[in-house]
Amino acid sequence: AQKNRWAEELELTKHEMEWTVRFYMYMATTWQSCRDSATQLSSGHRAYAEKQIDMWNELGHVSEAMFKCL
């Protein structure tokens, strides 16, 4: 029974890793949409959006690379 619980936990963890990467990439896309849809952004707001896009993309790519090693 414990073996089955560990197998189930492993399967769930794999899905959670995939969901994490998808969430990070979703957030990057959300910030891209905000940046692109707002026509009158100040340079500061645009810079902040760009920083958020870069951060979420980086989190997604690094997480994906790290999870593939497992």
Mean pLDDT: 95
Per DSSP E runs of 2 or more residues, the count of β-strands stands at 0
Give the low-pLDDT segments: none
Q: What is the first-to-last residue Cα distance?
A: 24 Å
SSE-based structural type: mainly alpha
Radius of gyration: 17 Å
Total helical elements: 2
- Count the domains: 1
Oligomeric state as shown = single chain
What would you call the shape? elongated
- Sheet-strand content, in percent, reads under 5%
Helix content: over 70%
Strand/helix succession: HH
Query: What characterizes the major β-sheet?
Result: none
How would the blueprint of this fold be written?
Blueprint: H1 2-37, H2 43-68
Description:
The structure is a single chain. The model has no long low-confidence stretch (mean pLDDT 95). With 70 residues, this protein is an all-alpha fold. It has two helices and no strands. 7% of the residues are buried. Helices cover 89% and strands 0% of the residues.
Task: Provide a concise account of the structure shown.
The longest helix is centred in the N-terminal third of the chain and has 36 residues.
Any key phrases for this structure?
70 residues, mainly alpha
